[in-house]
């Protein structure tokens, strides 16, 4: 079942993310889909902040994976846009991240979806005509 969230501005993101985190309790793995500029990294930044991370959250476009740590939570933020194959994903240790028990926020996940056998949340972000964002989240097994 898909649950839809609407974001009308950056100001409503913290409360929206609190709702998402409260609703999505069956997995810590979130895969993000959306066009360039749709707000994937902005949403992930707010998720990390709501989980207690105080530092900067930036897209790991070149490093592929950023690790953020709070006093009791590990978060992996991945941008897999540059990966071309499942083998490349395995070479960077994708399975270690996915099975770590940490939060995994994954942008451009297409190449690793065949490797996923844990439950995860698919997050689809669409920019609307009024520049608001429609965020559809669906649990996948």
Strand content: 25-35%
Whole-number mean pLDDT: 93
- What is the total number of structural domains? 1
Strand tally: 7
**Number of helical runs?**
4
Q: Can you tell me the CATH superfamily?
A: P-loop containing nucleotide triphosphate hydrolases
Quote the CATH topology: Rossmann fold
Query: How much helicity do the residues have?
Result: 10-25%
Gross morphology is globular
Descriptive tags:
alpha/beta, Rossmann fold
Short description:
This protein has four helices and seven strands, in the order E-H-E-H-E-E-H-H-E-E-E.
Structure, described:
The mean pLDDT is about 95. It is globular and about 40 Å long. It has a seven-stranded mixed beta sheet with strand order 1-7-6-2-5-4-3, covered by helices on one side. It has a single domain (about 20-135), classed as Rossmann fold (3-Layer(aba) Sandwich), CATH 3.40.50.300. Helix content is about 25%, strand content about 30%. Helix 1 (about 15-25) packs across helix 2. The protein has helices spanning about 15-25, 40-50, 85-90, 95-100; strands at about 1-5, 30-35, 65-70, 75-80, 105, 120-125, 135-140. The protein is α/β, with parallel strands linked by helices and about 140 residues long. The protein has four helices and seven strands, in the order E-H-E-H-E-E-H-H-E-E-E.
């Amino acid at each position: 079942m898909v649950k839809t969230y609407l974001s009308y501005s950056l100001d409503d993101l913290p409360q929206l993310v609190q709702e998402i985190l409260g609703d999505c309790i069956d997995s810590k793995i979130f895969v993000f889909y959306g066009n360039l500029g749709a707000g994937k990294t902005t949403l992930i930044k707010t998720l990390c902040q709501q989980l207690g991370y105080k530092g900067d959250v930036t897209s790991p476009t070149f490093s592929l994976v950023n690790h953020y740590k709070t006093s009791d939570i590990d978060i992996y933020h991945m941008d897999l846009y540059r990966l071309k194959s499942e083998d490349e994903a395995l070479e960077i240790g994708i399975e270690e991240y996915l099975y770590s028990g940490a939060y995994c926020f994954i942008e451009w996940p297409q190449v690793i979806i065949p490797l996923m056998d844990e439950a995860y949340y698919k997050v689809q972000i669409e920019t609307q005509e009024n520049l608001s964002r429609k965020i559809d989240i669906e649990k996948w097994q």
